[in-house]
Write a structure and sequence with these properties.
The protein contains 13 helices and eleven strands. It has 357 residues and is α/β, with parallel strands linked by helices. The chain binds 6-O-phosphono-beta-D-fructofuranose.
Length: 357
């Protein structure tokens, strides 16, 4: 007999359902009497006792389905210890729900913030297994997160589509790519889409270097330039500001996002129009790509295996091509960023991609 709780928290992505299916299939094939409780809208469901006993049919046909059958919400980690508007202690409420249902384990699918709360619940004595979800690929301790490859496909498609129109009009185009504070998605989609310039949060850009890369292309007879710009990209000047000053500057920024600012600065220097395309949340939508389906099936099965062995307190990651249990205590709160001196950056530079640095 096993009683499992499951929730998906933070921004959604394409392979959440595939991962939950992996866990439940792995358990149901090996446990006589399995009960799976699904909490709605992430930690909210656990806090306010909003859940449902799921059945086998809930997990049937969902391998290819994007989003999450449980719904999700963002519950910031920094507010977890702060009582809600009615004075409810959220951590105590989550523990009560867990004990009331007599759960053997809680399987939590989510990104960095979600992982911090998962670790907090572990510290509070609950049995936790975490599965690393995010299109941003910024979770420490795993080579890859699920959602990342599917999002690369979509962002790459966006850049591919821009290529033909950019070439026809001889224009400079910016495609803004998601990724929050890290540049993994922009780096991979940028390379895959053949972007000429890639701007990442980890490599602050110099607008003059960006403009000279565009001029270099023009001189070589290429009338158009494509930039893949991470939503968190930052200029060299801004990177020098204190956290407080930067926050203030962002608050008063007259552009809707960093790409529009980059576009305005380029326009000012080259004297011709720059177009911006923002694929936005399409990058998190649709079906998971085959890679993510396989990844989630493996992560789910490995998670089930840990639950069968009653071995808790881990994130199940993918390390050097194999599933691996990684202690939550070792990874929670750490961010995996693109290393500016890494081989992939050096190789991209070698083939002529500019990072504006
Ligand atoms: O973390 C995933 C992500 O899609 C980031 O890339 C992006 O910055 C953020 O979520 C967008 O959040 P929201 O869906 O709340 O607008």
């Amino acid at each position: 007999m096993k009683r499992i709780g499951m929730l998906t928290s933070g921004g959604d992505c394409q392979a959440l359902n595939a991962a939950m299916r992996g866990v439940v299939k792995g358990l149901s094939k090996n446990v006589e009497d399995l009960e799976v409780y699904g909490f709605y809208e992430g930690y909210k469901g656990l806090i306010y006792g909003n859940y449902r006993l799921l059945t086998g049919s809930d997990f049937s046909g969902i391998l290819t389905k994007g989003g999450t059958i449980l719904g999700t919400s963002r519950q910031p980690f920094k507010l977890m210890r702060v009582p809600d508007e009615k004075g409810l202690d959220k951590v105590e409420a989550m523990k009560q729900t867990y004990y009331k249902l007599r759960l053997d384990c809680l399987v939590i699918l989510g990104g960095n913030g979600t992982q911090k709360t998962a670790n907090l619940l572990r510290e509070e004595g609950l049995n936790i297994i975490h599965l690393p979800k995010t299109i941003d690929n910024d979770i420490y301790g795993t080579d890859v997160t699920f959602g990342f490859q599917s999002a690369i496909d979509i962002a790459t498609d966006a850049i591919d589509c821009i290529h033909t129109t950019a070439a026809s009009h001889n224009r400079v185009f910016i495609v803004e790519v998601m990724g929050h504070k890290v540049g993994w998605l922009t780096l991979y989609a940028g390379i895959a889409g053949g972007a000429d310039i890639i701007l990442l949060p980890e490599i602050p850009y110099d607008i003059n270097k960006v403009v000279s890369a565009i001029a270099g292309r023009n001189k070589a007879g290429k009338g158009f330039t494509i930039l893949a710009v991470a939503e968190g990209a930052i200029s060299k000047e801004d990177a020098k500001l204190s956290k407080k000053d930067l926050k203030e500057k962002m608050k008063n920024r007259k552009y809707p996002s960093v790409s529009y600012e980059v576009a305005a600065r380029i326009e000012e220097k080259i004297g011709s129009e720059v177009r911006v395309t923002v694929p936005g949340h399409t990058q998190r939508g649709g079906s998971p790509c085959p890679y993510d389906r396989v990844l989630c099936t493996r992560l789910g099965a490995a998670a089930a295996n840990l639950i069968l062995k009653e071995d808790y307190g881990y994130m199940v990651g993918m390390v050097n091509g194999n599933t691996k249990k990684v202690p939550l205590a070792d990874v929670a709160g750490k961010l995996k960023m693109v290393e500016p001196n890494s081989k992939i950056i050096k190789e991209a530079k070698l083939i002529g991609i500019s990072f504006g640095d």
